[in-house]
Structures are given as C-alpha cells and as structure tokens.
Amino acid sequence: MKVLGISGSPRPGGNTDILVKLALEVLRDERIETEFLSLADRPIKACLACRGCAKADTLRCVQEDPAFEGIIDRFLAADGIIIGSPVYFGSATPQTMAMLGRVGYVARMKYNFLRRKVGAAIVVARRAGHNFTFAQLNYFFLINEMIVPGSTYWNVAFGREKGEVHNDAEGLDTIKTLAKNIAWLLGKLHAGD
Q1: Extended beta strands in 51-192, E state
Q2: 72 membership: H or E segment, kind and range
Q3: Domains of the chain as residue ranges with CATH
Q4: Considering the entire predicted model, what is its pTM?
Q5: Residue 84: C-alpha distances to residues 14, 18, 53, 62, 79 (Å)
Q6: What are residue 81's phi and psi, to 5 degrees?
Q7: For 153, how many CA atoms within 13 A lie in the half-sphere containing its CB?
Q8: What is the C-alpha to C-alpha distance for residues 67 and 44, in angstroms, rounded to an integer?
C-alpha cells in the first residue's frame, strides 16, 4: 500500500509541508509506503476544459506543462492521497486547484481511476477560511468516488510563519489520528490482497 502526500503550499518547508509530512511519518510507522510531493516549485497550469484527455488514447492531460508531468502517474500508483493546502483568500492555493482540476478531469474521462482510493484533506489557516478550503478539497474526493476518513476534529491547524503549527497541539494530534485512520482504512480495503 502506498500513500501520496501533496503539499499545495508555495512556501517550501512551511506549515502545510510540516503537517503533510507528519501524516506520512505516522503512515510509515504503520508500515505503509509514502511519497511526498511539494507543489512549491510547480507552477501548474489550470485545466482548459479542452476535453483532449477524453480523446487521448492514454491516461494523460494533453496540455503541454512540465510542472504537471508525472502527477497523474503518482495518483495512479497511490492507494491513498493526502492533499494539504494553506488558506489563500478563503480558498485552496491556485496550484492545488489547478492540479486537482486536471487530475480530476482526466480521471473522470478515463475509467474514473480515483474510485475507491482513500482521500484526505489537511488545511492550514492563519485565522479563518479553513472550513471552506477543507470542504473544497473534500469535494474533489467525493465527486471522484473516493473514501474519506475522519479524525477527532476537522483536519486543520493554525499558523502563519513557518513552524507555527507546532504550537497547535490539537491540530497536530488531529493529523496524527487522521493518519492512523487512513492506515486502518487502507488495511481494511486491502485485507484480501
């Protein structure tokens, strides 16, 4: 089993990276393979709704975009996907939404390859906007027929400057519990493998 953890923050080493990596650390302790992907250096172009992916004979977005290269393969290889984003003006970051738009469009045009994978959102807020951003990411999982585990609270933590999430004990515990629930759920889903 493998979980892909994606940080949609444009700030390398920031609070979103910290939380996604914390979840992956817990999953590794549960003997689950993990991969971390940062979008900080990936200026992903938005979906053009050209429907080229529907006409393509392979699972790919036809748009030329080096920043997006390999992302669909990573989603295909993962049994679980964690997507983290800081709140930007009440929303997930533009690069997060660009990635989700393109992956989601290809998935829905080609075999719905996200169906029954596990999906979980992690959101970091300075002060507010986390509920909408959390819902926004979960909408992606739900429309793609993914299975969304819960935690002891919504998967959010608070912090602005790099490392400030370490001061949010409840947020850190929520992410650890989320990761344990992902591991449990993956174990149930793959018990017969």
Answers
A1: 80-86, 118-125, 156-158
A2: helix 71-77
A3: 2-189 (3.40.50.360)
A4: 0.96
A5: 11, 10, 25, 26, 17
A6: -135, 125
A7: 13
A8: 5
